[in-house]
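Bit of a strange request maybe. I'm writing a small parser for structure token strings and I need a real example to test against, not something I typed by hand. Could someone generate the tokens for this chain?
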Amino acid sequence: MEHAIIEKANPIALSEEQKVKLNQYKIQTRKHNEVFLRKHPEVGCLVSDFLHEVLLQRPENVVEFASQHFTRPDIRNRINSQIKEEKKLLRREERREAKDS
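Reply from user aminoacidic:
Good idea to test on real output. This should exercise your parser:
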């Protein structure tokens, strides 16, 4: 009896064609997201800055803290400074790698 239950088609299961299309969609979405994030390093800096502050201050109300954090008047300057620092570090690493080659 158990065997008969297993053989019945699952109406919510994906067909092989649907699985292939879904996987292609996932891959394309990841590629598009990666390209977007490379073009916009400020996204990573914003997230990193926010997480750093949350873990440092450990607010009781994280949503309220986020609201205040992302509306700070100095947020643009903070993020721009972080981007400049990251670019400097990348250039140093590239020079070091070129020197080692």
